[in-house]
Write a structure and sequence with these properties.
Number of strands: 2
Distance between the termini: 33 Å
Largest sheet: 2 strands, antiparallel
Structural class: mainly alpha
Strand content: under 5%
Order of helices and strands: HHHEEHHH
Helix content: 25-40%
Shape: extended
Radius of gyration: 21 Å
């Protein structure tokens, strides 16, 4: 956009249903910036543009920053310190690959194939118990879905338990039930 002109949509809020559709359409897709790098000249311009008062977080240190002091037990995502617990020694690369093969290298929530993802599919514990490495407790998820299911855990445990009885990779179920999560 040329300097001095205002975008047609500036100040307009995108409807929630449109945002949800866009989000679901982009699940598991690689970034459009993958493999692209900025020139040193661009990096220098960005550094200069964000110095001092031009920085969007300028002056928002300490108590003014929204997440100030909200780490550990004060964080809204705190789960009682369970992320520090070790995984079972049998939860290794070979087991993870076996689960991905079992799931046809496809995210079991949104259906995106691993080939279209930036990273390998994550192997997720349905019951969130790191020691439970039974095959029926492990599923393959893309990084977007794996991040999503780490919130509202009770809902997702129930969802995956029900999905085990039917089709585990059904995008219609995701669209239908996923809307309850947001």
């Amino acid at each position: 956009m040329p300097k001095g002109q205002v975008a047609w949509n500036k100040g307009k809020k995108t409807p929630d249903d449109t945002r949800k559709k866009l989000s679901l359409a982009m699940l598991g897709r690689p970034s459009s910036r993958k493999g692209k790098h900025q020139t040193e000249e661009s990096n220098q311009k960005n550094r200069e543009a964000h110095l001092g008062e031009n920085n969007p977080n300028f002056g928002r240190t300490g108590g003014k920053h929204p997440m100030f002091g909200r780490c550990g037990e004060l964080s809204p995502t705190w789960q009682g310190g369970i992320s520090f617990l070790p995984y079972s020694s049998e939860f290794n690369a070979a087991l993870k690959e076996r689960i991905r093969e079992h799931d046809n290298h496809t995210c079991q929530l949104c259906g995106v194939p691993q080939a279209e993802c930036i990273r390998k599919l994550a192997v997720h514990h349905i019951d969130y118990d790191k020691e439970n490495i039974a095959d029926d407790n492990l599923i393959s998820l893309c990084i977007s879905c794996n991040t999503m299911v780490n919130f509202n855990r009770e809902y997702w445990m129930k969802y995956f338990q029900e999905a085990k009885l039917g089709n585990r990779s059904n995008p219609e179920i995701l669209h239908e039930r996923g809307s309850q999560v947001y």
